[in-house]
């Protein structure tokens, strides 16, 4: 248990607590609307809103013992053994002392209790650490330091730069222009680029005025607590006026304040009601498929046990009737106990004797094996990310073997597949490509981390983090090439980036999206430094010379235009329009003189697209003053038109954005995490299907799909589902399905069955269909919403499962979880979800296995995950090595454990036919007690912890080794039945061969050797040796530890046997150690050792023969690879191949943002810098515009007119 882990809560425990809460009237009424008043704790307390303290612990000092014992005894096996202890207390029933069951049960409960206590202590520490953070709270007109746990709904708190937001708060005012604040939402959505929030105008007036803030008594009515991170609806009522509130005015708990000196906020949601905690909600209790199968097996074994005991009870009745009277001379009957009651007692006596079929040590060993394999994940240095000092972590120790059975992987994009870092890689200027390196023979050179970088020391304002390698580009720019300088001048002017300069020369750009920042940074390093801006001007340092351009107009980007333009006037009075956008859009607007240059640039664009880069085309146009004046007049008329405003504005933009002169193209890399394409390729070879569920727009996600090799040019077809109606979505899905499989039936093939405990659970399984060719499916969020409805979900799943790749774009956190649940419900396959932000939490919790990408402190996905890794590439080692080994080890352990215990129990069953069904046991009491706890405990643990069929290198070399786990081939019903048959055969040999050998045996001195104690020692020694040798046959991988465990256990067995049977022990404890001298007398006979040899031979020779036969006739993939291992030795490390140059006509057209641009905010008159050296972004035009609408931009008026006053009714 790590400090930031949220432990799973068992469903039964949750039901119990809920019942107790209802019983005492403590259940909280569902909240329909939140109503609060600022600075009025008495008013807000009347609503009994949650305080800001969080609690993830389960126990306290008083409740630990009863609640923990209650949890442990909800397990069927623990309750069963408690029942056995109770009936063992009755001497009329039990032939075994009570401690043979009580000692193991006490050990199990103690180990589990200590583990739970340690986990809960860590949770208490984590809760205390978070709750004791401090924040400034406005109380009685003064700012006071308060712990987070004391913050209440309605309080006004002050936040400072780099401070975490303590609760969900309504932003009131800030230190920045227009009351803006910058927040980093890494913990929520995994994105590192800053988000902008803005306070309402009516609250922003208060600024840092403590008296005004203390008098602030506004009321807020808003939605109840929920987990929607991207939506908020509410109203602010102040002085009788109603002002609307949206998500852009709310700071969420978990965000960090950046580049903002201070801000004030009104607490709306606190503690468990915050959106962060709502997304973290209660975890479902996850069990592996092996656990579920084990529950069914335990029930079956109980049934078998009852049947065996019933047979023996009937045998007891028959024996008492026919032969019991003969033994009444020395076994007098108990008065009042007839044959019926005697048989009933015999039944329960054999329930105790044969309880070895469900040994309690099984559960101890399973937990220890899982814990050990979890440590191996934690300790794996090949999954350690040294850059961030982040190891892999198994945060849940009970799901390891499930990692070896994954069939479907659901992945987020941003921060999971990508680093959310954009780099300027290549460009084409005036027909010449830059960014590649060539050697003296003209061959392209692979660029690595050791490749020489450009030296930008000549530019004092250059960004030291910027990396570029092509010297020819820098030489071209510094030589004064007009096209190259115009290229970078465009990048320095045509954008909505905001500069920040705290100290002279230390520039920091705040970009709406990382790729815009990358382009401006590239211009900065090549000598065209964007320095500052006002609503009317842009200041650029051009090759060391300060140039101030008048900003005439911004023609902003939106999803329809797919381009952005600025019109600027140089100090010389020259008017120029600079435009950048998608190649298809810009090419339509180029001057005919650019046709030849366009052909060359297109060839470069194809190369860049083949490398998976995001491309933009750059162009410009010189304008005439008179034309611009006339155009602005027409634009003003169109912008105030009541009818057809958008169409008229669109035409106005078209008029000026034509006959452009092509400058070139840029290629920006949306940097993937290292090794992502190779990892996806390896997982695909292991027959795992990877679905990408992302909130990004289709174009961005599609581009990443090509970069990751999930989408390929050679695919038969990539289907795109983007309909806006349910019928349209249905038709598009059906078209895709019929195209992939023309002969498929119209109705899906669903197999209905029963499963689970007592077979009460109904299951529906959608059958796979054969498809020729490779296909991919891309579906948008609005289409997915229709497809997830009950009428269409099977059609969606059926079509998606035919595809090799599925990408879902613009999906909400809830939709991510719904997709995972849909696959779980109808495919009956093991699923894994991997992500890095709070928007991935619901998906992570819905999947069988949740993996969080760590490496940045406080990542919310990690808090809710079962495993955490620092990089996506480590997923292949987590699954193909650790997951496969864990599954293989667990299945081997279970097969062997059931084999040895069934063999033990069947031998006791055969002996019942020779002891008058009296409940007597054939072996020594202490042998029965120590058999699982001591004699065979460590060897079987060694098998479960260290065994491996092939090394990690071979496991990665042959991902196909993973497929048996997906089919659950190593431990299913057939395997269990074969294990039982093997145990039955071994028990026959182990009982009847020693029995026959000692039937008429005599010792060397002529005395009879066939007494009960000698036979018992002989039988138990044969049993122990056979199961030990069988363990050796099961082991593929031998280490010193395995050898020590096996030979040490054999030595311990013989040492304990001789010590317990010696005279001294008998004299001290004559009633507990009755086998005086039995070991010495039995094992000193040569015939005994010959019997042991024959017994082992008869038990093990058929096993070797069958395995040899199967390996020759029907070898498995494991057999083939292990044969190759012995033949070839360890594989060589995979060479680093240079990625071949790929050409593509498919390009990402534009990826600057997911919403409209910030052009109107840049040109807002409300933008007034407050500092001499620091320019701050003015991102909002007037009082309360939305920050990021999920729709195309409504065209604005470029001419700047005075703001009209807006009354309260306008905001409603």
Automatic annotation (TrEMBL):
Q: What is its main location?
A: membrane
Question: Which GO biological process categories is it annotated with?
Answer: Golgi organization; phospholipid translocation
Could you state a single Gene Ontology molecular function term? ATP binding
Q: What class of enzyme is it?
A: translocase
Q: Name one GO cellular component term.
A: plasma membrane
> For this protein, what is the EC number?
7.6.2.1
| Residue ranges of domain P-type ATPase N-terminal in the record | 37-101
Listed under catalytic activity are: ATP + H2O + phospholipidSide 1 = ADP + phosphate + phospholipidSide 2
* CDD domains documented for this protein: P-type_ATPase_APLT_Dnf-like (cd02073)
* NCBIfam families on file: ATPase-Plipid, ATPase_P-type
Q: What is this protein called?
A: Phospholipid-transporting ATPase
Species of origin reads Menidia menidia
